[in-house]
Amino acid sequence: MNLSQAFDEIVLKRRSNRRFDTEIQVPDEVIQKSLERAILSPNSSNMQLWEFYWIHSSEEKAQYEKLCLGQSAARTASHLVVFVTRQDHWKNHSQWNIDKIKSSITGEPSKTEKRALDYYGILMPILYRTDILGLSTLIRRAITFVKGFNNPFMRFAGLADQRVMVHKSCALAAQTFMLSITAEGFDTCPMEGFDAKLVKRALNLPNQAEINMIVAVGKGTEEGIYGKRNRLPFEDVVFKR
User: Cα separations (Å) of 219 from 48, 55, 60?
Assistant: First the structure.
């Protein structure tokens, strides 16, 4: 089987399974490997503004069953993983990237290396900095207006834009994780039905952190599949230009 066929098999097998076999436990090594793969997911500017909370103990899983509104996927899961966005870590992660670049430089930095250092030292603060008065947002709006007046330019200004960006990256990691679990012979159910405020409290997260999704993991059952995987026709959603 070539890589294309193997990937086809994984994608076609992956389904959101809402009821797991409680007699079959997913080995810790499977979750570990899948989280390691998730960390390799593409993300905006390699800022990696995410955290993954592996809910392993039976006591905490019982707590999260309630926080996930009693969903059968949460109740029967072998493991739960909470995917969290952390745009409040942008300063530390920018510096981490700068340190990585500097550690690879021998002698005088090249133009490419200088651009990379400026990217994390100048551009990332412009994109992510916030303040109580909203001056940072006004500066971004002004830059967008001037630079984008007659030319294509990234339209990025307020906190909503930051939230969208970090949630996209985090969701990519969650998808990598779910495909990995499928490749290991187990099943997942991504859940949006949960009390985000109480989940943040349970994880002791600051206000700036947000819950992207919670993924339940286990060995799926037939009754956990609620029906055929129906999708709109290709021609209704794909437009070749």
Answer: 29, 16, 19
